[in-house]
Specification:
Helix content: 10-25%
Number of helices: 2
CATH architecture: 2-Layer Sandwich
Structural class: alpha+beta
CATH superfamily: RutC-like
Strand content: 25-35%
Low-confidence stretches: none
Oligomer: single chain
Order of helices and strands: EEEEHEHEE
Number of domains: 1
Shape: globular
Mean pLDDT: 96
Number of strands: 7
Distance between the termini: 17 Å
CATH class: Alpha Beta
Length: 119
């Protein structure tokens, strides 16, 4: 079986697709780095959506998600954006944890696993 990759760099790819399952790399804010958690969350979710589309999936097909926050006390700010983004009735299995991220300007990183759309 073939493994397809999207957004390949030397160290990672934005998504790897195998057997109808899309594995997304951790996505972080690019344009809103250093801004509020709400702004970063909005951007990260938009980036996830773009990657899912390129992989033949969409946000309603996310199976599981891991959310990493630098300050878990701000989870309500992230949840406000998240709740507006996730289509009703399609919330994935989710884990949210506090973690130190690679760049001091990033307050959130999200990774996910999704099912491809049927062709």
């Amino acid at each position: 079986m073939t493994i397809d990759r999207i957004g390949v760099t030397q160290r990672w790819c934005d998504a790897a697709i195998f057997n109808g399952i899309v594995f997304l790399a951790g996505h972080v804010a690019e344009k809103t780095e250093g801004r509020s958690l709400g702004e970063q969350t909005t951007e990260v979710l938009a980036l996830l959506e773009e990657t899912l589309e390129a992989a033949g999936s969409d946000k309603s097909r996310i199976l599981s998600v891991q959310i990493f926050l630098t300050d878990i006390a701000k989870i309500a700010e992230m949840n406000e954006v998240w709740d507006a983004w996730v289509p009703k009735g399609t919330a994935p299995a989710r884990a949210t944890v506090e973690a130190k991220l690679a760049s001091p300007g990033h307050d959130i990183e999200i990774t996910a696993v999704a099912a491809k759309k049927s062709t």
